[in-house]
């Protein structure tokens, strides 16, 4: 009787799960898939993740019509999947610049108005790094070749959403690293820079006297 009861419970649970899954809309399925990936990447690793769980990911933060027509012409043929405003930090002087991050089916673009400043093919993407603190810093690591100027340092408001979208489109979930203390990034020409993460009273990003990019 006990075995029969356990079997019936399992069958009932399986049927309930199947009914739930069949009742999901396509949009809800995509949302759940993204949240599962976000959990695998950030759960127990980055501050603010728990608070982000009940916040749905948007399809995009900006519409395709918000992207300059000249840029749309340059990436013609690639379906745009996600666009978000970001702050890009120069690799040398760390000056902050307003940019757009445009994610297509095959590439990530850093866009300035009507110009594409950098293109990263997902196939060549070497890694994605963010810190364990509550900042929105994201580093996209690229290969050391003549096509790339160096790694891309970005700050975005919706860090969990943006990183999840990027790693899923690139199919490189396992290459996301949540680091503690500091990380190295490639400046170009074989040179490397250091980014240090620390805790303070006010969030800020600045170049320290020792030349390191400091994120508070």
Automatic annotation (TrEMBL):
Domain TH1, chain residue ranges per copy: 46-216
Protein origin, superkingdom: Eukaryota
InterPro entries: Myosin_TH1
GO CC field: myosin complex
GO molecular function, one term: cytoskeletal motor activity
Protein known as: Unconventional myosin-Ih
Record organism: Cuculus canorus (Common cuckoo)
